[in-house]
Amino acid sequence: MTVTDRPATYREVFAERTFRALFVARTLAIGANALQIFALSVLVYAGTGSPLLSALAFAAGFAPQFVGGLLLGSLTDRLRPRPLITIGYAVEAVLAAVLGLVVLPVPISLGLVAAIACWTPVFAGSAARVIAERLTGDAYVLGRSVSSMSSSAAQLLGLAGGGVAVAALGPRPALLFAAGLHVVAAVAVRLGLPASVKQPAPDRGGTVRDSWTGAISLLRDRVIGRLLLAQWLPAAFVVGAEALFVAYAARRGFPAAAGAVLMGAPAAGMFLGNFVVGRFLRPSLRERYAAAFVVLLGAPLIGLVLSPPLPVAAGLLVLAGTGFAYGLGLQRAFLEAAPDGRTGQLFALLSTGLMALQGLGPLVFGALAEVTSPLLAIVTAGVATVLVAPLVRR
Questions:
Q1: Domain-by-domain residue ranges, the chain?
Q2: What is the pLDDT of residues 22-38, one digit of tens each?
Q3: What burial class does residue 8 get, using C-beta atoms within 10 Å of its C-beta: 0-12 exposed, 13-18 middle, 19+ buried?
Q4: Which of 40-44, 55-59, 305-309 is the least confident region?
């Protein structure tokens, strides 16, 4: 094993002060966003009694990110990261505070959430750009792995904590708590990031035009296009399957709580897989077996066709979740493919596509389950995931 093929350690990753600051800030911000979305959904439903408006309140923080990533993504490379990310978290804090303190008409509340959500890919892309500049070699790959794990954990804890906070305090105090978390995130970035990192990209004209032109050029690049699809498609397919676990559990006659157990199993597997593969597997082996991990991600979903008992089904889904570690084998190639001056925008585009396709996956496989069965739709998602493996191998 050569020095360059040695797995990085968490000590090396967290020794970088900038990464520590972004890690803390992003974890707090994601948890705050999840808490805010849940509390706002409860607040809207309590005020209107409309399930549709409550669902729109939940979606308002996600769907507009697709537009923002396409039309504002170039700002990640054109603006300095510290003020950009700090202002972003501060604005989100103000939004949560306004929602918690001011009684606004529902359309205005949802409009404000949607407007701020358009900028989320810009902040995320800028943070990813900084990590790529400050961490080198396998430390960068492990840093991305840690960021993914913390993001998933923060979102789950934010939703769970949102339920507790809303039940104990009510939705408006919960929104104020989310505002406080955003303030702490902004302070962490302001104090933890250096005043200047890499020089921003030169001004290439209007933001929207430059962002659109850059996005099209990135998508037309064959290598970048394949790497984006390889990261977008498996996530979309598996999330589409996860959306059907409650219906699947009901059809199988499992206990009422089984749906939640099945939905949490892939997340647990993803955490385990990223930890083990990221920390203990050599970089060359991660890249060599990336396609095999994609097969591991989809094959256990196909195994549900055998109608296993609940513990076995949950175990299969934990095993499937470990397959998400395939993304670690793509990170080095993905970063190397980024053109100069577009690194931040490429990360913003990756985030945008993940968000959009993970929203589309449940619709597609939900429609399939409607005309067939939840089991058949889940198995189809597993087959589709396995079929992505040759794309990852290339």
A1: 1-205, 221-394
A2: 999 988 988 888 788 87
A3: buried
A4: 55-59
Structural contact between residues 378 and 305, judged by C-beta atoms closer than 8 angstroms: no
The model's pLDDT over 210-226, given as tens digits with 9 standing for 90+, comes to 888 888 888 888 899 99
- Which residue is listed with tokens 């949607």? 114
Q: Please work out, in degrees rounded to the nearest 5, the angle formed at the alpha carbon of residue 268 by the alpha carbons of 262 and 273.
A: 130
Q: Give the integer Cα–Cα distance in Å for 300 and 287.
A: 22
Q: Domain 221-394 classified CATH 1.20.1250.20?
A: yes
Q: 351 near 125, Cβ under 8 Å?
A: yes
Residue 318 phi, psi dihedral angles, 5° rounding: -65, -45
Calculate the average pLDDT of the chain.
85
Of 208, 223, 218, nearest to 78 by C-alpha is 208
Rg (CA), the chain: 21
Tokens, residue 150: 């913390």
Tell me which residue has tokens 């804890």: 157
pLDDT by residue (tens digit) across 320-341?
999 999 998 898 888 888 887 7
Question: What fold, for 1-205?
Answer: Growth Hormone; Chain: A; (1.20.1250)
Q: What is the chain's length?
A: 394
| Element of type H or E holding 30 | helix 17-48
* Distance between CA atoms of residues 66 and 378, nearest Å: 26
Instruction: Report percent pLDDT > 90 for the chain.
Output: 26
Which residues, 6+ apart, have CB-to-CB distance to 369 below 8 Å?
244, 247, 376, 377, 378
Between 377 and 161, the more confident residue is: 377
Does 221-394 match 1-205 at the fold level?
yes
Q: How far is it, in rounded angstroms, from Cα 28 to Cα 21?
A: 11
Closest CA to 251 of 149, 370, 350: 370
Interacting residues of 335 by C-beta distance below 8 A, sequence separation 6+: 132, 140, 343
